[in-house]
Design goal:
This protein has about 350 residues and is of the alpha/beta class. It is built from eleven helices and nine strands. Strand 1, helix 1 and strand 2 form a beta-alpha-beta unit.
Length: about 350
């Protein structure tokens, strides 16, 4: 399908301006500059109860001006107005469904099961593509060197205006991906080809927090040579409903699963694997203290700190733990502004 023009899409809400509400990417020619066809790009958007964001996501995909787009939306059975919004754009969708699923990774795999494109990507229903993103990455996949993965820069932004750029890189060692919060590049700005997705086996449906990082770890282990672009391709929305905000400790739990699954492939000995898991557990305990402080108060945080020290007395020698203990014992909860980041 050729991307529709702005005039063909439903009118935006009256208070919405700019990209992708009242602005669009230029329509691309039928052929690439060298005369070859544009690769078909398949985009999957998984969603659940994101009616406040999903329309912006949809429009950022459809208004790319791209000549050969396949857009798929997999909704997990939303109870808000998401389905009504999706129906507004149904004529430009290759496939969409709204039904219960087994989680985000399952929803994405389900979407790609319907995909027929040469290039794959998924865009969550609270993120958006930048104007011209598809025009930027498509020629890279047409190069003779058989590019299999492309990643660009991504802007992390909040509705109140704060922005931070995540510049894409590729780690020298795949062990980097074992870190609970490892971020070589942001997932919304990543694209890969169909053959790579099939070769590494898609997303691990046993994971629902670190499945993208584990996928890119397997991609790295397959020996590919990714293309890293300086271009800004997407924007990641930071809001209070994101998993990182609401279920941060789950990232640590799944990171332990990833170490157990891939430690041997990464050359870790049994001892090194245990050490790595121990590091993740201690880091999780430290984060849990901040989470408890914010949610249930200072006494709860002190209790968790005491438990962490009793389980691992050596942590009391760490400067950050001593500093945290001092703040917990001397500061009132309302004075600890740093909690806002958790």
């Amino acid at each position: 399908m050729r991307c529709p023009t702005l005039s063909k899409l439903p009118s935006p809400p009256p208070d919405k301006r700019g990209w992708p509400w009242t602005e669009e990417s230029p329509q691309l020619t039928e052929k690439m500059p060298d005369g070859s066809p544009w690769p078909k790009i398949s985009i999957v958007t998984p969603s659940l109860n994101q009616d406040q964001f999903i329309e912006e996501t949809i429009r950022s995909v459809l208004l790319q001006g791209y000549p050969d787009l396949e857009y798929i939306i997999v909704d997990g059975g939303s109870s808000d107005d998401s389905v009504e919004i999706i129906k507004k754009y149904a004529q430009w969708l290759a496939f969409w469904v709204s039904e219960p699923d087994k989680g985000q990774s399952h929803a994405i795999n389900k979407g790609f099961a319907h995909a027929r494109g040469q290039v794959y990507a998924y865009l969550n229903s609270d993120d958006v593509y930048q104007p011209g993103a598809l025009n930027t990455i498509a020629p890279v996949f047409s190069l003779e060197d058989r590019t299999e993965l492309v990643a660009g820069s991504c802007t992390f932004y909040e509705d109140r205006g704060q922005e931070e750029m995540c510049v894409a890189t590729w780690p020298e060692s795949m062990n980097y991906f074992l870190g609970p919060l490892a971020l070589a590049f942001a997932q919304p700005a990543a694209f890969w080809n169909r053959e790579l997705f099939q070769r590494v086996g898609g997303f691990d449906e046993r994971l629902n927090f670190c499945f993208d990082r584990e996928f890119f770890l397997r991609v790295g282990l397959s020996g590919i040579n990714p293309r890293i672009l300086p271009n800004g391709l997407a924007k990641y929305r930071v809001h209070q409903g994101t998993k990182f905000k609401t279920q941060l400790t789950k990232f640590y739990d799944e990171s332990i699963q990833i170490v157990k699954k891939h430690g041997q492939s990464l050359g870790l000995t049994d001892r090194e694997e245990k050490v790595k898991i121990g590091e993740i557990i201690r880091e999780r305990s430290y984060v849990e203290i901040f989470v408890a402080w914010k949610k249930t108060g200072r006494f709860s945080a002190i209790t968790k700190l005491a438990k962490m020290i009793s389980c691992s007395p050596r942590t009391l020698l760490e400067r950050r733990v001593l500093g945290l203990a001092r703040r917990l014992l001397t500061y009132a909860q309302s004075e600890v502004m740093e909690l806002k980041k958790f």
